[in-house]
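Dear Dr. L.,

I hope this message finds you well. Following up on our conversation about the binding site, I have prepared a predicted three-dimensional model of the protein together with LAXINWYW. For your records, I am including the exact sequence and ligand specification that went into the calculation, followed by the structure tokens. Please feel free to forward this to your student if that is useful.
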Amino acid sequence: MERIEQHASFGGSQEVWRFHSDALGATARFGVYLPPAALRGDRCPVLYWLSGLTCTEQNFITKANVQAHAAQHGLIVVAPDTSPRGDGVADDPAYDLGQGAGFYVNATQAPWAPHYRMQDHVAEELPALVEARFPATDRRAVSGHSMGGHGALVTALRHPGRYRSVSAFSPIVAPSQVPWGRKALAAYLGPDPAAWAEWDAVELLKTARERLPLLVDQGEADEFLARELRPDLLEAACAATGHPLTLRRQPGYDHSYYFIASFLGEHVAHHAAALRG
Ligand SMILES: N[C@@H](CCC(=O)N[C@@H](CSC=O)C(=O)NCC(=O)O)C(=O)O
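The resulting structure of the complex is given below.
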């Protein structure tokens, strides 16, 4: 494991590390922010952030101003890449499949299956590594944006008891029902939609064993709202199952990091409260 970036930030340390990921069968990078409390030697809870299509570990750590909020609340923040990468890793020329578009699933289909095990990477491998190698507790929260919002919801729903809180910005809530999701799930999991249900938040809500409250922010001027994101489907699924949901529709905001940065402080405060309890 090798540290390849280190920057002082808000009294803490923003770092990027690379290591050989057994889950991905490839070299993987992740960003980690260590707040001042962690540098003083305190063990801190961890917020995992899952980014969207075309992102690397860099987008969130350079655009969202997360360090200011994490420093204030004493949270470690971990930001993985969005797929396995490398010359020997399958790819596709389109921006919404292959490298940069792992969709946080464990692929079962060729040519993706050997490396595209992002769910194992973010839900198993990284927490084990972070809790062993950094001053981290096993109190975890998960959040993300768009494809990563889908990743956050699905990861929390698939692992009852593992996360104290979950939130999302502009998530793809029902990948089985929208073009981005249908394309990716068909490629990674095969053409049978029955295999997609365990990677679809709206489907997982029907049988959830834990009713962890969901906090979701969605911009009303988001260019992907009606075609890809469909918060109405999440609202209906939560109403049907009695799952607690706070869905905030934010007038005038688009799909960008300007939107994320505007409300990230409220999400970090929400996670910090859950992680303290
Ligand atoms: N066609 C666009 C789509 C890419 C895009 O908008 N990516 C978003 C996430 S979308 C859903 O997962 C993003 O976070 N981009 C990175 C950023 O820093 O804004 C394109 O290819 O640009």
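In brief: Residues 219 and 253 are 4 Å apart (CA to CA).

With kind regards,
A. P.
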